[in-house]
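From the shared-data thread, chain only:
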Amino acid sequence: MGTVRADTSAYYTQQPFRGAAASFRISDKRGGANGGRIQLEPQKRWASNNPARLQIVLNGLKSVQSKFNKANSAKQVSLADLVVLGGTAAVEAAAKAAGINLAVRFTPGRNDTTQALTDISTFKYLKPIADGFVNYGVGIGRSTTEEILVDKAGLLTLSTPEMTVLVGGMRALNANYDGSSHGILTSRPGQLTNDFFVNLLNISTTWQPIANTNQEFFQGNDRASGQPLYTATRSDLILGSHPELRAVSEVYGSADASEKFAKDFASAWSKVCTLPGGWSARESLVFLPTLRYVLILLSQVMELDRYDLKNRLQDEVQLD
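Structure, as tokens:
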């Protein structure tokens, strides 16, 4: 899919994942990307969604939506679908930049709701205290930061490997909510590499709490020279310290795991982005020639090279 700038990849992967899809919770099946509420109150002002970044993404996607819908009266595309499709395109481009050809599943059919149909007073209960997937926030008295991460993974119906690979992938994509470098354990941010796990498990790095951060943030130094290398959060380091999570991290940090990591990340990404499901791709399918046009428009907005879809048109839309 061509090249992608690190900040472009971060913007377009953070918003569909954290801001839209990852708001879902299986407990009452509220939230999720369907409905496009990421553009509405109160979600568009949540600190975890980084409103300044979010507005950049929404402006770009709304311009694509407007151009497409004006030119195609018979087939209309929703902002909810574009949010996910934009993130999917960014993930594929980031994989390409890492030397991996990756086709990420995209199922269309989401619809946009309105502000009038959104109960602001009850949606406040979906607002996160902390979110380890994008390194937002810290724990509270009754729950540590990493416990909130695990709880959120449960609400997203994620398995242990799925949670682990998503955290590592979001760090590789430089997708922290605020653009910080915490947990970005790579010299190639914006590329879908397994560097996070490789460097997390590197015994040549020692980790110490940073002063006055209540042991929420840590400094990684070279064991021999003492030179600072990285900073990380509790949500990052738990993947290397908890026995079960470390075992999974060792799989993804293996020398021959680059492709497995990318494919597993894509699978977990698609799972979250289709929660809660229930819509019919057949009823609101954007057909392949139409999808080609949408992707070209997205490529212009996202500063990607034009997409080479020649070998994958037949696979771009997968029906349920």
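Confidence is low (pLDDT under 50) at residues 1-6, 281-289, 305-320.
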